[in-house]
Amino acid sequence: MAEPQIQYCTTADGVSIAYAVSGSGPPLLFLRAGFRSHLAVEWQHARIRRRYEWLAMRHTLVRFDPRGSGLSQRNGFELNAMLDIEAVTAELGLHQFSIFALAAAAVNAITYAAAHPEQVTRMLLWNGNLIAAAPSLAGLNQLQDWTTLSETLASAVGGWEDPAEERADAALIRASITKEMYLRRFAAREGADVAPLLRRIIAPTLVVHIRESLVPLAAVRTIVAGIPNARLQSVEGKSDFIPFDAPNVAPWLEAFLAGEEAMPSVEAPAAPPASAPSAPSDISVVLFTDIVDSTALTERLGDTVFRTASRALDEGMRAAMREAGGEPVEGKVLGDGVMGVFKTASQAIVAARRCIELSAESELQLHVGLHAGDVLHEAGNVYGGAVNIASRVCGLSAPGEVLVSATVRELARTSAGVTFADRGKHALKGIDDAVRLYEVRWRKDGA
User: Fold this and answer.
1) In a domain, 271, yes or no
2) In this structure, are 293 and 245 located in the same domain?
3) Which region among 41-50, 169-178, 275-284, 376-385 has the lowest average model confidence (pLDDT)?
4) Domain closes at, from 220, 241, 257
5) CA–CA distance from 112 to each of 150, 157, 201, 248 (Å)?
6) Nearest to residue 391, comparing CAs of 339, 313, 438, 426?
7) In the predicted model, is pLDDT for residue 99 greater than 70?
8) pLDDT (tens digit, 9 = 90+) per residue, 366-403?
9) Is the pLDDT of residue 335 over 80?
């Protein structure tokens, strides 16, 4: 398929928007997050182009670069995704159309479908989320270098297994948007709340969840439960970039987009009973680690050396967690961290000590924190307040130090070879009450 011609239209507030049309058939408006949208560069990315070609074989596919990204106007405006959509659809004379929204663009699709129910005939939200990407990504925004930040985003969000594709994705991010605009968009999404709009959507909606991605299943279920005529489809994978023509995707995806109500393999969005959690829950000790000042280390050591060292440390820590009786979490964790869950505090402390020893054997130092509480197990990851607190405790630890909450200290007071030094109470972000923390110390004669 030939590369589609790029054209331009102007929004009601005077912003120039680049758009492209390909294929034939019922109109399908494809929405992407601004930090990964560049009409020309995307077409050179084989996996992305393959998806567009698959859709264009069945639809008149309409794509555009949101303001501030790609080939659209880059500055001199207020962010307003609705005006961008209205300008493109008006330019093409689209009175009714389907929407296919990818990941973070689900917020824009929901907002538009709620405001223009007469126009949107069908809506597909691919790994959609109502909040700003994933909460764990907020910490990445502190990275100063745009190349490093884009590469970290590509790794965290993309779930790539091929390093070449990961580098190409990072290059797409840099081509799509500046760091300043990325941070501006992220801040705008953090303040957005479209949950009240869900009940106003009347279009049949399919919400797809990629099981091992950053998007938690609970967040997807919130969307499905809120839209009156919505269904949920779960797909194995780590990345948003699963091929649309894959055998486990194409039948039900094609059926839904074609307007067939009897879609194969689609799960009903049954809400869990009010008295039961939406996922398996238990009391666990959470061990959270993170590499100290990874951005500066990358600049000092070079990207290749740092990545080689961090991967070796990652593998060693995961092995140590398993040897101690715990389970390292396979899902993505903020920054360069590794998280593990344990049934006992003594197991977690043994693993924490081994992680510190492994870091001492490399050039990479660690922050290490532990907390215990209820956690939810979903799609290769764990969630819940205990995880958030463990992450905050980790962030407060000094390099090479293991900090634990008072809860863990009480559970491990009889652990052989361990003492605890009181570090006082600390206010943790998102936690109402201050949390008392303790430094773990090993006796010289302790095991």
Assistant:
1) no
2) no
3) 275-284
4) 257
5) 28, 25, 9, 30
6) 339
7) yes
8) 999 999 887 776 655 677 777 878 888 998 999 999 99
9) no
Same domain, 289 and 240: no
Beta strand spans in 55-189 (E): 60-64, 97-102, 120-126
178 falls within a domain? yes
Tell whether 36 and 96 lie within a shared domain.
Answer: yes
**Token output for 11:** 């929004």
| Structure tokens given for 350 | 């043994």
DSSP H helical segments within 159-293, as ranges?
A: 163-176, 179-190, 217-226, 250-257
pLDDT at 430 (0 to 100): 61
pLDDT at 225: 86
- How large is the average pLDDT for residues 56-82? 94
- Burial class from Cβ neighbours inside 10 Å (0-12, 13-18, 19+) for residue 82 reads middle
What CATH number is associated with residue 340? 3.30.70.1230
Instruction: For residue 10, give the CATH number of its domain.
Output: 3.40.50.1820
Domain annotation covers residue 173: yes
Q: What is the dihedral of CA 122, 210, 295, 429, to 10 degrees?
A: 80
| 8 Å CB contact between 310 and 298 | no
Q: Find, among 140, 169, 194, 138, the residue nearest to 45 by Cα.
A: 169
Q: What is the DSSP string of 188-207?
A: HHHT---GGGGGG--S-EEE
CA dist., res. 97 & res. 99, Å (int): 7
Query: Residue 364 is part of which domain span?
Result: 281-442
Number of separate domains in the chain? 2
Both 238 and 312 in a single domain? no
Q: Is this structure's pTM higher than 0.70?
A: no
Q: What is the mean pLDDT of residues 75-79?
A: 89
Residue 181 lies in a domain: yes
Q: Tell me, yes or no, whether 294 and 201 share the same domain.
A: no
pLDDT one-digit tens code per residue, 134-156: 444 555 556 668 888 888 878 77
In angstroms, the CA 277 to CA 382 distance is: 13
In terms of domains, do 312 and 231 share one? no
Nearest in space to 72 (alpha carbons), one of 22, 15, 33: 15
Q: Are residues 318 and 216 in the same domain?
A: no
Residue 229 DSSP label: T
For residue 121, what are its two tokens? 């005939």
Same domain, 167 and 225: yes
And the tokens for 81?
Answer: 């995704």
CA of 375: how far to CAs of 47, 119, 388, 390, 402, in Å?
36, 42, 10, 11, 21
